[in-house]
Every structure is written in C-alpha cells, then in structure tokens.
Amino acid sequence: MPDESQQLISDFGLTPKVEAAILAALKEQNTPKINSLILPMHPSDQAAILNRTSHLECGSLLRLIGEKLDPEAFTFLEEEVRKQAFEVLGPDIYGRLLPSLDSDDMANIAAELKPDDLANVLEAMPLENRVEVKQALSYPDATAGRMMQREKIVVPPFWDVNQTIDYVRSLSFDREDFYSVIITDYNHHPIGEVRFDKLIRASSTKKISEIMQTDLHLIPTMAGQEDVARLFRRYAMVSGCVVDEDGMLLGIITIDDVVQIIDEEADADLRALAGVSDLSLRLSIFKMFKGRSRWLLANLGTAILASMVIGIFDTTLNQLIALAILMPIVASMGGNAGTQTVTVAVRALALDGLTPKLFRRFLLKEVVVGFLNGIIFALLSAIMVMFWFADIYLAAVIAVAMIVNLSVASLSGVLIPFGLNKMGVDPAISSTVFLTTLTDITGFFVFLGLAALFLI
Fold first, then answer.
1. Which of 6, 306, 348, 408 has the fewest Cβ atoms nearer than 10 Å?
2. Rounded distance between C-alpha atoms, residue 330 and residue 450, angstroms
3. pLDDT of residue 163
C-alpha cells in the first residue's frame, strides 16, 4: 500500500496538490515530508518546484534537501535559481554533484560561475572531470565545441555486431543518452555510424562496415549553435559527430541538446521582439526596470518622430477635428500588418530559408497581400466614415491612406529585417522599432497630407 506522499505524486509529476503539500511541509520545516515528496520526482519536476518558489522559499528548500537533490535537476533550473543554489550549497557540494552529469551539462553549469567560484568547484572535482570542464570552456560559448558531450561509443569497422554489442554492454556510462555507435578509422576520423535499432536487428556475425551509414554530417567545433540546430532540423538527425580541424572525432551532440538550443533561441527571439531582457519571474525589480527602460526610451524617440510629423499638420487638425479621431486607425492598422510580415520574415531568416530567389517571391507575395488587405480595409473604413461623419471626401482620404500604409507596412516588414540581417544586426531585436516608426510616420503623413490637399 503506497504512503500518502507517493499517492500525491501522479504520472504528471508536479501537480498543484503536490506543490501545495511541499509548501505546507516547508512552512512546518518538516524535512522528512519534504524529502518524501521531492526526491522521488523526476529531475525536471524537482527543478520546477524550485523555479516556482520565492527566493526565500527556494533557499529553505535547498538547505533542507542539500545534496540529496538529483544532479540532473540543475540542468532544468533557471539561471537565477542556479546562482542561488550555488550560494546555498557551496563549491564542495557542487564539485561532488556536477561530475554525475553529462560532460556537456557539467560544462554549461560551470561556465555560469564566477572565476573564483569556478576554481573552487574544479578543485573539489575529480581530476578527470576537471580536465573535461577545462577542455569544454576552452571553446567559445554557443559553439559545438562547448555544447558537445565527450562521452561516446566508438568501434573500428572490422568488428562484427556481436563484438560491438558486448562492448556497449561493458561500458560504465549510466546517465548519458546514446543513439548510435560511431565507426572511426585508424586516425580516429569518423567514417560511419550505426543506429542502435539497426544494430540489434542485424545478424551477429555481420561486420559493422557492412551495416554502417556513411553519409555523416560532421559538425566543426566552432560551428554556432544555431547552425547545429539547423543541421539537425534539415536532416532529421538524432545525433551528430563533432570534429576538430583535422577531422578527428572529439565528441557528439544529441537531439536533447538541440531541443534545448531551439528553446533558448525561441526564448531569445521572443524577448527581443517584446523588448524585454529576461522572461524569468524571479528577476529583481531593478533588473526588470533596467532591461525594459532602454527599449521604452527607444520607443519614446520614435514616437517623438511620429509626433513631429503630426505637428506639421497642426493647422489641418485644428480645422477638421475628425482627422484627430480617425488618425490612429490608419497608423494602428499599418503597425499590425507590418508586425505580421516581419514575424514571418524573421522566422524565415532564422531558418536560413530566404535565398535570393525565394526572397523576391516572398517580397512580391507580401506586398500583394498588403495591397489586397489595404483595399478590403479601405472599403470598410470608408463605409464606417460615411456612416459616422457623412463625408465622402473624408472617406476617400482614409481609404487611400489605408491602402498606401498597409502596402508600405508589408514592404518594410520584409526589407527591414532582411537589411538588418545583411548588416550583421539581429533582425529580431531591432525590426519592430524601425517598423512601427515607419508605419506611424507613413500613416500620419499620407492621411494628414491628403486631408490638407483635398479637405481644407
């Protein structure tokens, strides 16, 4: 008969009921209860409860659980929580826990430490792990050399299936994920691989060279993580060999690492498009203020430019108050239409999907769609103005302004991110700032300019 703690932990891990029970036990400082609830969990659920709690609650949990926490949980913690975990646990416990991780995860966590803290953690590690971390940190951040795991299964091509399976069984790896056996020549150059499903289905007497796949996609150590993710996505890979400048095998990258990269890149793009520096709920007020205020400052500058355009037509606005009422409609529609286009363009650039030929086709399609949307919403806006103000000339002005602004928005939604990318600037970061400025200025200028010419 399972006890109450085990009944609380369902197949879905950290449920609201479990979380409430943990927090209640924490309030009572009931260490046995906390251990019985948290320690049987999957590492990601152990990390989730620490990520969700306040700074004070997280610190208390870490002190009560200590080094009983599954080391793999550290890979699921938010960076701010990992910093707190180090402050609570200290370098000695870190030095004992991290070697239990895959070499790539161990290096990633070690890279976040301050130099003095890293030195203390390395001192507490076994020599073999210390060397692995130092080798990983010798490569730049966000490169294949930094993210690869050094554990790998390598056999020569002349072995048979039976020898290979016996060798795999004899290995002491217990936490690492492997999807294939790598075959190398005498110079340790990878020449093929055999997926495990194919290995166990093959005749035991067959040579590995007879069943290995030879069309490998080798990854240079200095390849960026975005390029690695793109390679995995394009060729539906589950693992890849990382090689040095001479083509010698150094390590492997597995699909679980690539999923993490894709998640990080999506998170970074989302932050850039939203103009925030961090999405963590545990971020301090000062850091949130600092990260957001600079983007708001940039937006203030662009808003002033748009206001200056409006100021040019102050006489026009004074004579026809309806223009002030209708003016935001044109600018808002242009901004939204441009955002739709720029989102698709940024995504296409991130996936390396805009070749020169495709770019021209994509540009034409977006401009046509913008023009068609402009016509549809020009008619709707004109009808609305006729019912509201009973002025056919005002309806015609807003209709023309709507067509022009939505067409310009679609055009600039492609050209702005493409131009920024050509200049080496991340289009996800700056596109929306330029786009909203351009659509606001265009919308105000065309609408008020036409009104000044034909209505006043």
1. 6
2. 13
3. 95
392-422 and 322-350 helices cross at what angle (nearest 10)?
30
- d(C-alpha 439, C-alpha 423), whole Å: 22
What single letter denotes the amino acid at residue 305? L
DSSP of 265-289, one letter per residue?
A: HHHHHHHHHHT-S---TT--HHHHH
Sorted by where each starts, the structural domains of the chain and their CATH numbers stand as 4-138 (1.25.60.10), 154-264 (3.10.580.10), 285-454 (1.10.357.20)
Residue 453 and residue 393: Cα distance in Å, rounded? 11
Q: What is the pLDDT of residue 61?
A: 93
CA distance 402 to 241: 53
Provide the pLDDT for residue 187: 92
Structure tokens at 12: 């879905």
Which residue's structure tokens are 């286009």?
Answer: 341
The DSSP output letter for 29 is T
What's the confidence (pLDDT) of residue 425?
72
Supply 117's token pair. 């803290």
Residue 236: DSSP 8-state:
T
Rounded Cα distance between 311 and 344, Å, is 34
Which residue is it, tokens 């069943």? 211
**Residue 36: alpha-carbon gap to chain centroid:** 34
Alpha helices by DSSP H, 148-205: 161-170, 196-201
Provide the token pair at 383. 């009808």
| Exposure string over 164-203, b if 16+ CB within 10 A, otherwise e | bbeebeeeeeeebebbbbbbbeeeeebbbbbbeeebeebe
Whether 187 and 248 have beta carbons less than 8 Å apart is answered as yes
Give the pair of three-digit tokens for residue 395: 């309806």
Beta strands in 239-372 (DSSP E): 239-243, 249-254
pTM of structure: 0.66
Which of 89, 41, 228, 70 shows the shortest CA–CA distance to 149? Answer: 228
Closest-CA residue to 66 (of 42, 94, 25, 29): 94
Res 7: pLDDT: 47
| DSSP assignment letter at 140 | P
| Residue 226, CA distances (Å) to 262, 268, 346 in order | 8, 12, 14
pLDDT given at position 335: 82
* Residue spans of the chain under pLDDT 50: 1-2, 4-11
Q: How far apart are CA 186 and CA 177, in angstroms?
A: 26
Beta-carbon neighbour count of residue 234 at 10 Å?
11
Kindly report the length of the chain. 456
Cβ proximity of 312 and 451 under 8 Å: no
